[in-house]
Amino acid sequence: MTSLPTHAQTVIIGGGSIGCNTAYHLTKLGMSDVVVLERNQLTSGTTWHAAGLIVAGLLKTEAECEIYTHGRDLYASLEQETGVPTGFRDVGYLQIANNAERVHEMRRLAPFMRRHGINIHEVSPQESADLFPIGDLSDVMAGFYIPEDGRANPVDLTMSLAKGARMGGAKIFEGVTVCEIIASNGTATGVRTADGQTITAENVVICGGMWSRQLGAKAGINLPLQAAEHYYLITENVPGLSRDLPVLEDPSTYTYYREEVGGLMLGLFEPGAAPWKLDGIPEDFSFGEIEPDWDRVGAHLEKAYSRVPSTLDIGVRKLFCGPESFTPDLAPLVGETPELRKCFVACGMNSLGILNGAGTGNVLAHWIVDGHPPIDVTGINVNRFTRHEATRAFRRDRGPELLGKLFGQHYHNEGFETARDLKRSVLHDRLAASGAYFGEGHGWEMPDWFAPSVEQAKIETYSWHRQNWFDWHAEEHRAAREDVIIMDMSAMSKFQVEGPDALALMSRLSCNDVDVEAGRLIYTAWVNEQGGFEADLTVTRLADDRFMVVVGENSHGHTLMRMKRHISEAEVVVITDLTPAITQINIHGPKARQLMEKVTSADMSNEAFAFMTCQDIDVGYWMVKAFRVTFVGELGWELQVPSYAAVQIYDLLKEAGKEFGLRDAGMQTLNSLRLEKAYRDFGLDVDNTDNPIEAGLGFAVKLDKPGGFIGRDALAAIKEKGVPSTRMLQFLLQDPEPLLYGNELIYLDGQEVGYMQVGGYGHTLGGAVGIGFVELDRPLTAEIVRTGNWQLEVAGERHLATASLRPLFDPKMERIKC
Length: 818
Description:
Low-confidence stretches: none
CATH class of the domain at 1-88 and 149-225 and 327-385: Alpha Beta
CATH architecture of the domain at 1-88 and 149-225 and 327-385: 3-Layer(bba) Sandwich
């Protein structure tokens, strides 16, 4: 039995790429008392059979770029530090596009990636063929090449990281299985091994790869990930094949290609993949392989060979099948778990554990040491999932879709097709009958847009240009501006917060002053100690000791975790998640008051029911909570309806609204309406690295409120600097044809100064509209915004744009407050 220390500052469970990377980066931050426990040998899980690709792919967020570039740069220099070879070689990376939509997608993202340090540039079909002479690239329309990318040896690289961690003081033990995470009062305090030894620790980190889900479950931790079969084929030696052949990625064949010891490796990410061991990964599975299913992958291999037909007559050295773990949304699970304090996790790398291991390890190390992450983590935070995504049935059904979705061609509005119809509003059938096309948002079925008939409620062809539903969506948008719309917003997360210390909790979290009279709504941001966003939401005071917190569905888990973590030990606060019990029906538009007056006896006048207030009103037979608030920039109310009454109230509103031109509206219209008003949305436009001052939300920050709030001093320091050099602006393209989705670069007087966070089409404004941060080397004044020559780059072409600090639509809020 290996003798282990009885205590460590941090214990890391798992000795693969992620565990060794996390240990290495912790020691770089000065934490030397680190213990890594590996159940077998380092790399014995999935690391040993990884392809070792160090390639960027198509990256859509600043965080993804930072994680990738950190790893690439580290791997290129690690051998010099440790003396242990990593096998890193910058052979280059070529992505090819054989259709116009793929070319357009890559032209949209390439400038964004270059802005963040990735040297990707377009090459011609002939240049692509010259770079990859072994392939048949006759159908290629364009290539996109990164010369600095390449490959590494996964085992050597991990051993080099382990050496670096040991050099920093970390201790690594092999042959030690952790069977239990020990906890007390909601905090992880150590681990227990299979041979009965206990190590107490200030931090426990789960880096157990595909075993993480079942280990976490023992401690009540929700880690939805599932192993799936992953194949690659290696040919016999190919005459004349260069060791410096670039890595080729082809989404049309769902395959990557690279040289392997004189042969060619064909790595599959095929649609219709096979989940592996749904009931649990065997504890003794080490350096293991899965028996290949030739019948299932045969057709995929045939397609893969179509890109390199010259190798068809060359023998097969190895068809390898091994497991890789995948998450429901193809993003990693990283951060402190909501179930246990001081228990951190980094797993679910979606077959990119070598590529993203260093960047992820760096993020998690800073999170542990500094108490907060150094980058935006809204897309990878482990607290984004609910427990249903970890069920056997969900993993079984979603699993086959994941590999192909990861590697195939992508579109801005393309969602998952499997494991659907889970969180459905009670209005779902009514909405479907009205022609709703449903998208998925964090498990919720949400109407994206409405077709004239049920039969037409489908996407005919995905595109980066106008799709078949564009004009129907435009009609919804116009109805909101000219008549009235009804929206099912049941997916919004709704929490009742009550108790003698509810006010103290809400005040401590909120930048705005929530100590108001009952019936008042307050829009506020929640920020961390550095002033970075943790949420933007509404807080409604229902009584002296009771509040309603409403936040977007994408922030459900994060908001709940933040509230729970900030209840002091001596405080009494009860938080109730009312989301499943309440159906939220929104009524908005200039005729909203006329509609509401037909269905209620309440006085809905501006004098009796002011903006940003809440009242209990009757609607038909029922009493509901009506909130006069808007996220679309029009007069209206959000009705919180008991779910048992929702169908009846929806029917009543639809019937009463006929004379006012009432239309159902979906999420596309919500987005276009709110972007015309430049409303912010946490997780989409702003994240934990942004602050309310620079985001233009300073009006909702009360620096002088009694008792202050978390992050008050940080925001005060930002405010004291005067006009910031970084500000969020709204943009409107002057040409009505191009579309905006986000990531488009912003130019001021010919100089690149930022990028768009999100975009949509402003049907009222007459062009694509969006919001983005601009960063200058001087204060970004209103004069610069007004007089500057602004352009946005869309797929390689620059278009003139109008920029504004104030909403371009109804800047005085006259329509909202009427």
